[in-house]
Amino acid sequence: MENTSVSDQEDNPVHHYLTTVVTSLRHFGATIPKGHAYLCVPDYVLQRGQVWPTSPTITEVELGALRQLRVWPQQCYANCQQLVTQLPQELGLQYVEGMAICGHRDGNSLPLPLAHAWLLVDGKLYDPTWSLHGDYDVASSHYFGVQFSSDEVHAHIAATEEYSAMIDDWTHGYPLLRSSE
Question: Of 73, 95, 96, 122, which is least surrounded by CB within 10 A?
């Protein structure tokens, strides 16, 4: 998928939130921790991520292939990592992790970005976790995140022995936020 333009990112409320968090932390004197390359999780997502458009949507054929495995409410990392690692590569699944705002059909969306994971199906956004909710509206949702290869997802699962957040991995000392030096 092509990178989004600067104006698309600036118009995205998740990008605005991430920028505000990082700017505020720096304003109040926060510095990058020793051994890290990023100030915090929002800084990593802001520097390495992008806006992910919610259209075009996936086809019914693609959706049918994704329904081979069961997904669970409130388990976005497990749902997406399981689908990427257990379904055939021919489906063109890519794992994305970052922050998102869940849009609702009735317009009553909570405008607070949440740490979240979703998929790309041949470049088209698909959210298996939020799609479980009948009032989820992809068109009014907003996504900003970092795309990971299936090899990176496999390596994370092998290293942690669990399906879990790759970026906000506090239990393992935030390996993605550390500097490579």
Answer: 73
> Residues 115, 37: one domain?
no
Pair 24, 79 in one domain:
no
Residues 55 and 130 reside in one and the same domain: yes
Please give the full DSSP string across 72-131, using - where no structure is assigned.
-TT-HHHHHHHHHHHS-GGG-EEEEEEEEE--BTTS------EEEEEEEETTEEE-TTGG
Secondary structure of residue 19 in the 3-state scheme: helix
- Domain that includes residue 21, residue range: 6-49
Query: Is this prediction's pTM over 0.85?
Result: yes
| Six token digits for residue 34 | 């020793």
Residues with Cβ < 8 Å from 152, sequence gap 6 or more? 95, 166
82, 20: one domain? no
Q: Per-residue pLDDT tens, the chain, 181 aa: give them.
A: 445 555 567 789 999 999 999 999 999 999 999 999 999 999 999 999 999 999 888 888 888 888 888 999 999 999 999 999 999 888 889 999 999 999 988 877 778 999 999 999 999 999 999 998 878 999 899 999 999 999 999 999 999 999 999 999 999 999 999 987 5
How many domains in the chain? 2
* Residue 173 falls inside a structural domain: no
